[in-house]
Structure formats: structure tokens, C-alpha cells
Design goal:
CATH superfamily of the domain at 2-81 and 144-222 in chain A: P-loop containing nucleotide triphosphate hydrolases
Order of helices and strands of chain A: EEEHEEHEHHHEHEEEHH
Number of helices of chain A: 8
CATH topology of chain B: ABC transporter involved in vitamin B12 uptake, BtuC
Helix content of chain B: over 70%
CATH topology of the domain at 2-81 and 144-222 in chain A: Rossmann fold
Strand content of chain A: 15-25%
Shape of chain A: globular
Number of strands of chain B: 0
CATH class of the domain at 2-81 and 144-222 in chain A: Alpha Beta
Strand content of chain B: under 5%
Largest sheet of chain A: 6 strands, mixed
CATH architecture of the domain at 2-81 and 144-222 in chain A: 3-Layer(aba) Sandwich
Distance between the termini of chain B: 30 Å
Number of strands of chain A: 10
Oligomer: heterodimer
Helix content of chain A: 25-40%
């Protein structure tokens, strides 16, 4: 079954006639230069931005689904989480369970998954950008939603936490979820099942990374020359030290 | 531990302030006599003082404080800014201008005209702030909008005051609105103020969870299951209504809506499920305490003046630490 179907999604001056379908158990990346519409796409697909076109969540039109039911099956992580008030990390992650009558289920696992256990009592206002990003991700995962839309989740993370987040995304997909993740770093897109390439609000590529991110496409969209030699390969060790 | 201590402190402060408000004043009554008088027994003078003068005043004072503090909590979450409050954003001034306009037009004798005019004025002011300073707007923009709006509304009130300067009774009433106070509150103010404020507070209390999420911004709130369009109007309406009702029975009482939410957030954390009821209790206690101070301190101080003397320096301290 499709987790999310988007047809002719358009946001004036930002997103132009984008269509795709996300299947369960897949990890999909959205790439494109700054201002190409990655964040807009995620927000519009999550129903958080006025847009024309159709969005269907598990076969049902999104506007006809009550907001709380949407939240139970679709989680969205903003590119930059801003916190005005000094909630503790644990309180913020537990906000992901409000929609489930505040049952606190899975909050500890989410904290552990994002290496936040030691920070659980720290006010979110006193975290670094990368730490805040992990808190937002943990909250989205704690919702238990089967469709996860993450906006640049690794942009502010150090390499170790970035790789851990991608590994967790893979585990969620293997567990049955569908993930749509916007990425800055094209090299990371190669570990995804599918890549959507955006250019000035239009979808110009959709397929496996090696089909979409060809040197010609990269040159056309990003204006840079792609050479495939790998200078530094970074990966998580099999066993954590 | 700290939370429990603060909670107990609040729970004991409010009845203490209420009792002090019944016992203290020009005539000091021992607590035993206050208890007797409340039941209508004992010295008839004490019965009159306690039941006819101080009880309505204390009830109205507690309701006003709870309303203003709750309103401040909601505005701070809604505007995502710890410096938002009914006074600084001009909502109190809007309510006062509404009330003063009705008084100046000579329509102030009917029981409901003044509160209704205050509500209308407060909603107009809120609408203006919502338009001028979008939610999530920076402190600067929000406060500057508030300053501009306050200046405009206060100018309107001052205009009405100056055109009616010859009519002593009327200008006295107008001055009452401007400085805020609980003197000579009677049964009618209890009837206007208390049921509606209690109702608005009761409607607000279950929204703590929504407030937590709204304070993250609209998109985040919606993505976490808050029907923002519906909840937004409920929050704006209830917080404006609370300020308007408080202003309609006690005039402009500043800073309660700023100081109480902020201090309690420091003490209890930002979770609005705790903060809302705590602010209602704390606001009531602070207002009663300030009102007792107006009676005990020499020079005929007004409630709005005392809360401003407490709140002004506090606000400056907040600006230093927050902005």
C-alpha cells in the first residue's frame, strides 16, 4: 500500500506540479540546491502549508483526515526547531505522545535512539543546534507514525550522529515505515532506496540514486562537476566502542 | 522537590492572602472575628465590614488576579514570547478605553454596558496586535506594536478625560479605570466578574497541552495533532475575554499578567498544564496582597499603582535577562 500519494502539488512561486508516491518500507531522499523547494515540498505534503493539488495519506485525502489522526500517521521534523520556553528534553520528546492520550510510550526508546538519555533533564533552550535537531527527531519517532517527513535532519549533526540518524532511518524503513528525508549532502543520498531531485520547485529526477544523481544531472541542477572517486569514506563501526 | 515546594507555597499563599484581605484595613479584625462575621454573627459593624465591603472586594480581587495571570500565560505561549502580557500589548488599555467611552457617553449605569464595552475594546486591541505583530514575531516588533497601541488607546482615554474634566463625578470614574482598584466593589461587580471569569478559567484549563504545542509555532503544533485554526481562536478569545472582564470590574491593573506567569515558569517549568492553574492561584494571591498594601500603606495608593511599582522593576530585570 502507498503511504503517501502526492499529485500535482503546487505552491505558488515555490513548488510546481510535483507528483510522486511513497511506498512503505522505503527510504526516500529529496535533494536539490538551496531554494529548490525541499522544505516547501515536505510542509505541503504534511498539510502544513496551503497548496493546490492532491495529497493522500494511506489512500485517504489529507484534508478530510482530522488533524490529530494525521499526526498519528504522519510526523514532520522542521529544518530548524525553535524553542521559546525551557521545556526539558524529555518533556519535548513526550510531546510526541500527546496525540496518544499522553501515554509516554516509546519516549525512553526515542531518547536512547538519538543519544539523548544524558540530556533528558536539560532545558532545550540550552542545547546546541545539532542537539535540538536530535530532540525534534526523537519526538517525531516517538509518535510512532508510519510516515516520517524529515527536513534536513543531519544538516547540523556531527558525522557520528549523522550516520546514526541515517542508520536509524534505515531501521525504521525496514520495520515498515516510509521516510521522506531532505538532504543537503548528495553523497548521503546514495544509501537511500530512492532519490527525488528538485530544481526550482520542479521534480526533475525520481529513481534510484545512481540513476538520478548522474554527473550530467548534478552539473545541470547544482552547477558542479561530479567525480566519483571517494576521498574519505566514513561509516559506523559494527560494534560501538 | 522545588516544584512541590512552590505548589505548596501557592496553595497556602492564596488562602492566606484572602484572609488577610478580609482582616486587614482601616479596621483590623482578628481572624476569629472575621470567621464569626462571615457567618453573620458577632459585632454587627464587623459583619458589615467583612460581608458587605471586604468580601466582595476580596472575591473580585482574586478573580481579577487569576484572570490577568491566566491571560498573560496564554498570550506568552500564543505570541511565543515571555514578554507578552495583556498590559504591554495594549489589551488592557483597549478594555479601559471601551469602558471609559461608555461612561463618557453616560451609558454607564446599566449593569452590563461597561463590561460589554470593555470586552469590545479589548477584542479590537487584540485584533490590532495580531495584525501588527505576527505570532513568533521578535520581541522588538511585539513590544513596539504594544507601545504604539498603548499610546493610541491611552490618548483616546485621555481625550475623553479632558473633554469631561468639568464633570467631577465622571472624571473620577474615568480615573478609576486608568489606575485600577478594588475600592467599593459590591455585589454587582461580583455578579459581573466572578461567574464569567471562573467559566473562562475552567474552559482554559484543559488547553494546557495545546498551549505547550502552540508555543512551538503553528506548523509544529499542527504536525503534533493540534487543530491550530480552531484552538488559536479559542485561546485568543478566552485570553482577551479574561483581560476584558478583569478590566471591567477593576480598571487597568498592570504587570500581574507579566510577572506571575514569568516567575512561575521559572519555578515550575514551562509545562502549561501546571503553569495555568498555578498562575491563576499566584495571580489571585499577588493581586490580593497588593490590594492589602493599598489599604495599609499611607497616601491612598491605588491597586494599579502598587502592581506597577512591583512589576515595573521586575519588567526591567526581565528585559536585561531575556532580551
Amino acid at each position: 500500500m502507498s503511504a503517501l500519494t502526492v499529485r500535482a502539488l503546487t505552491v505558488p512561486a515555490r513548488l510546481d506540479d510535483v507528483s510522486f508516491t511513497l511506498r512503505l518500507r522505503t527510504l526516500t531522499a529529496v535533494v536539490g540546491p538551496n531554494g529548490s523547494g525541499k522544505s516547501t515540498l515536505l510542509q505541503a505534503a504534511a498539510g502544513l502549508l496551503p497548496a493546490s493539488g492532491d495529497v493522500e495519506l494511506q489512500g485517504r485525502p489529507l484534508p478530510r483526515i482530522a488533524v490529530i489522526d494525521r499526526a498519528r500517521c504522519l510526523a514532520w521534523v522542521p529544518q530548524e526547531a525553535s524553542f521559546q520556553f525551557a521545556f526539558s528534553v524529555r518533556e519535548v520528546v513526550a510531546q510526541g505522545r500527546y496525540m496518544w492520550a499522553d501515554d509516554d510510550c516509546g519516549v525512553d526508546d526515542a531518547l536512547a535512539s538519538f543519544d539523548l538519555r544524558d540530556l533528558a533533564d536539560r532545558p532545550v533552550t540550552r542545547l546546541s543546534g545539532g542537539e535540538r535537531q536530535r530532540v525534534s527527531l526523537a519526538r517525531a519517532v516517538a509518535t510512532g507514525a508510519g510516515l516520517q517527513l524529515w527536513d534536513e535532519p543531519v544538516a547540523q549533526l556531527d558525522v557520528r550522529h549523522a550516520l546514526e540518524v541515517l542508520a536509524l532511518a534505515r531501521r525504521l524503513a525496514n520495520g515498515g515505515a516510509a521516510l521522506l528525508v531532505s538532504l543537503h549532502d548528495l553523497r548521503m543520498a546514495h544509501s537511500f532506496d530512492r532519490v527525488l531531485l528538485l530544481k526550482r520547485g520542479r521534480l526533475v529526477g525520481d529513481g534510484r540514486a545512481e540513476e538520478v544523481l548522474t554527473p550530467a544531472a548534478i552539473f545541470e541542477v547544482f552547477g558542479v562537476r561530479a567525480r566519483s572517486e571517494v576521498s574519505l569514506q566514513l561509516e559506523l563501526p559494527d560494534v560501538r566502542p | 522537590m522545588k516544584r512541590r515546594l512552590v505548589t505548596w507555597l501557592l496553595v497556602s499563599l492564596l488562602p492566606a492572602a484572602f484572609l488577610a484581605s478580609l482582616a486587614l484595613g482601616e479596621v483590623r479584625l482578628p481572624l476569629a472575628e472575621v470567621a464569626e462575621a462571615l457567618r453573620g454573627r458577632g459585632d454587627p459593624v464587623a459583619v458589615t465590614i467583612v460581608r458587605d465591603f471586604r468580601l466582595p472586594r476580596s472575591l473580585v480581587g482574586a478573580a481579577v488576579g487569576a484572570a490577568l495571570a491566566a491571560s498573560g500565560v496564554v498570550m506568552q505561549a500564543f505570541f511565543r514570547n515571555a514578554l507578552a502580557s495583556p498590559g504591554l500589548l495594549g489589551v488592557s488599555s483597549g478594555a479601559a478605553l471601551g469602558a471609559v467611552t461608555v461612561l463618557a457617553l453616560g451609558l454607564g449605569h446599566a449593569l452590563w454596558t461597561v463590561p460589554l464595552a470593555a470586552i469590545a475594546g479589548a477584542f479590537l486591541a487584540t485584533a490590532a496586535v495580531v495584525v501588527l505583530a505576527r505570532r513568533g514575531a521578535g520581541t522588538e516588533r511585539l513590544l513596539l506594536s504594544g507601545i504604539a497601541l498603548n499610546a493610541l488607546l491611552d490618548a483616546g482615554t485621555a481625550f475623553l478625560l479632558s473633554t469631561n474634566a468639568g464633570r467631577l463625578e465622571l472624571s473620577g470614574q474615568i480615573l478609576f479605570w486608568l489606575m485600577g482598584g478594588l475600592e467599593s466593589r459590591a455585589a454587582e461587580h461580583v455578579i459581573i466578574g466572578i461567574p464569567s471569569i471562573v467559566l473562562a478559567c475552567v474552559l482554559l484549563l484543559p488547553l494546557g497541552r495545546d498551549l505547550n504545542l502552540i508555543s512551538l509555532g503553528e506548523q509544529s503544533a499542527q504536525s503534533l495533532g493540534v487543530d491550530v485554526r480552531r484552538v488559536r481562536w479559542k485561546l485568543v478569545a478566552l485570553s482577551t475575554l479574561l483581560t476584558a472582564l478583569a478590566t471591567s470590574v477593576a480598571g487597568v491593573v498592570g504587570f500581574v499578567g507579566l510577572v506571575v506567569p514569568h516567575l512561575l515558569r521559572l519555578a515550575l517549568g514551562p509545562d502549561h498544564r501546571r503553569l495555568l492553574p498555578a498562575a491563576m492561584m499566584g495571580g489571585a494571591a499577588l493581586t490580593l496582597a497588593c490590594d492589602v498594601a493599598t489599604r495599609l500603606l499611607p497616601g491612598g495608593l491605588r491597586l494599579g499603582v502598587v502592581t506597577a511599582m512591583v512589576g515595573g522593576p521586575f519588567f526591567l530585570w526581565m528585559l536585561r535577562t531575556l532580551a
